Amino acid sequence: MSQRFSFTPRLIALALALLLAVAGGAYFVGMRSGEGSQQSDTQSAAARQEPGASASALPVLANPNIREEVTPGTEGLDGPEPLADGSYDAMIFGPKAPIRSAEDVRNVHRRDPKDPFAIGAVDAPVVIAEFSDFECPYCSQWSNNTEPALIKEYVDRGLVRIEWNDMPVNGPAAEAAAQAGRAAAAQGKFDAFRRAFYQATADISGHPNFGLEDYVRIAKEAGVPNIEQFRQQASDGTYKEVIEQAKRYGASIGIQGTPAFVVGEQYISGAQPVDVFMRAVDQELQKAHQAS
Asked: What domains can you pick out in the chain, each with its CATH number?
């Protein structure tokens, strides 16, 4: 079932207050505008890192063997569940449930077995919620340079699930690309499309400003089976409203720039080096292990 939540001004204010809170196990959201930043603002339940502080300021992991000790997830490793007609729910967006208090932070993570925008086990100990924009060069950088190591070390081992959230902040081309991504998701090929897209932009400085024929070419590379259906859905506005809803959702919890990530209960802003993400993931794995 698609995630459909309305975001009233009161709820938006509440969510922003939640994400800006320091107490109650919440995390600090470093506001960013535009296409992204390579500076990191993170907050764990144990210690706060101020904006611009170095990654070394994060608390040192107490148990360096945590990746071997925590119980991995096993559900949904073969990919999302299709709908009854064999297609996939490309209308999914938003959190698992409304965010109304500090205790709801983890609702950002959907953990929906039908989610075509996620990779990794549904029951993985840690979820990374990614807020990205296809036109964002820093998102491309993260996808090509950082994510592969995280997939190998955590996702493939059932320790982490990564869930994409549309956050097209870079204008009409970004919104058009998001529609193309959902058209690929409807045929179960979102992740392949996303990877092929970012590989195609790896050597581009700035915004690629791709158009429909570029999306079609990338969809073919990604193995999208019905290209005519893809072409139609990528250009006819099928996903325009849900993408606007997804963007409003991201803004309602304080996301203004891309890429941005919620790693368990920690926030990371920008295309940070892989060690920043590994440190955060290991801390969240440790918390999950202690809670089990």
From this structure: 25-45+72-291 (3.40.30.10)
